[in-house]
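In this section we walk through a basic example: taking a raw amino acid sequence and producing a predicted 3D structure, encoded as discrete structure tokens. The instruction is simple. Fold the sequence below.
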Amino acid sequence: MNKLDQLIAALEQALSNKDWDELVRLNEQVQSTIESVMEALEAGQEDPEQVRTRLETLRRFVDTAGAGASQAKAEAEAELKGVSRNRNAAQAYAHVSSTRSK
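The resulting token sequence is shown next.
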């Protein structure tokens, strides 16, 4: 259970820092960590209520991370549109400048 607690804390920290690479790395550990907790639960080594609480925390994290990823995507799209507008403006200026010099 400690490994799951540490993983949840690390996921929350990475999300707080908007460290998407770290989130991807940590996400790769989720399945195996949950599997080991579930095996311990089935063997009677973990309290079902504590496992349920941790899994609920993880579910809420996933919801929050999904919202954060959507926000980051929207911000990136807005930045790309801004770059495109600047490029188009520069091209228009270059065209007008070259036309005037003729």
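Looking at the output, two observations stand out. Helices lie at 2-16, 20-42, 48-100. The chain is about 90% helix and 0% strand. In the next section we compare this with other chains.
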